[in-house]
Amino acid sequence: MKIIMLGAPGAGKGTQAIMIAEKYGIPHVSTGDIFRANIKNGTELGREAKKYMDQGLLVPDELTVKILLDRVAKEDCQKGYVLDGFPRTIPQAEVLDKALTEMEDAIDVAVNVDVPDENIIRRMSGRRACLSCGATYHIEHVPPKTEGICDHCGQPLVLRDDDKPETVKNRLKVYHDQTQPLIDYYAGKGILRTVDGTRSMNDVFAAIVEILEK
Ligand code: AP5
Ligand code: MG
After folding, report:
1. Rounded to the nearest 5 degrees, what angle is found at the Cα of 122, between the Cα atoms of 117 and 125?
2. I want to staple 32 with a disulfide (CB 3.0 to 4.6 A). Which of 85, 141, 160, 184 is the partner?
3. Known catalytic residue: 88?
4. Which residues contact 83 (CB under 8 A, 6 or more apart)?
5. Catalytic-role residue among 88, 123, 128, 193
């Protein structure tokens, strides 16, 4: 099963992708998490990506595409994966399609987690993220069992650098300009499914499972 998660920043792509990955035993592949891990480890890629991420801009396709294609070529991705945060531009989607077509393969479903902009800003300020395993929490809606500590891996939780309200506004603009066109792109391929992302985390997940098991 090869799944793409679409949606605005903060729509809950990561939250749902982790739940899907756990239920179906497939890897959760997040380009944002890969960049954040590189920033944390002080790599050259991390330094380059941070310049864009801190402004709420997209990391250039040349950097992003190679990382993603290398990741999905790994052994653990052969039975499927859930992509979170990739593709984010039409050229990224085209490169992914081309690579999959060459392997006589294709994406099964693109799940669009739909949340209006006004809900997004509120969600971001309360978000806490684990930079080790990529899990996300919300101080009110999705609190960790122990304050400030990741339920999954026990590492400390942080407020992401790009979750400042000004940066979130930029990310939303970039989303509408560059990523939202992917909704029509996947609708045109007949694989787009939309869920109402304003409902509770478990209700959103139930709607996604229903789609995946149809
Ligand atoms: P990325 O890490 O992908 O960030 P994003 O798309 O901005 O999305 P977020 O991770 O902020 O939100 P999410 O949808 O995963 O929501 P979450 O589940 O955390 O990318 C970061 C940056 O990296 C980009 O800006 C770009 O610079 C760069 N980048 C990454 N990929 C790239 C690419 N392909 N090309 C170019 N550049 C790229 O949920 C949000 C909050 O809401 C959490 O607090 C959560 O607990 C809470 N929540 C979730 N679900 C619910 C619910 N149902 N009800 C209430 N609260 C909820
Ligand atoms: Mg995320």
Report:
1. 125
2. 85
3. yes
4. 2, 3, 4, 5, 17, 29, 30, 68, 72
5. 88
What does the domain layout of the chain look like in residue ranges? 2-115+179-212
Catalytic site residue 13?
Answer: yes
Rounded-to-integer distance, Cα 165 and Cα 184, Å? 28
Kindly give the distance from the C-alpha atom of residue 127 to the centroid of ligand 2, in angstroms, as a whole number.
Answer: 10
Give tens-digit pLDDT for 48-101: 999 999 999 999 999 999 999 999 999 999 999 999 999 999 999 999 999 999
pLDDT digits (tens, 9 = 90+) for 3-60: 999 999 999 999 999 999 999 999 999 999 999 999 999 999 999 999 999 999 999 9
Is 171 an annotated catalytic residue? Answer: yes
Question: From the CA of 104, how far away is ligand 1's center (Å)?
Answer: 30
Query: Would residue 127 show up in a list of annotated catalytic residues for this protein?
Result: yes
HSE (CB half, 13 Å, CA atoms) of 104? 0
Coil vs helix vs strand at 106: coil
Q: Domain 2-115+179-212 classified CATH 1.10.10.10?
A: no
Tell whether ligand 1 has an atom less than 6 A from the beta carbon of residue 201.
Answer: yes
Residue nearest to atom 40 of ligand 1 (CA): 10
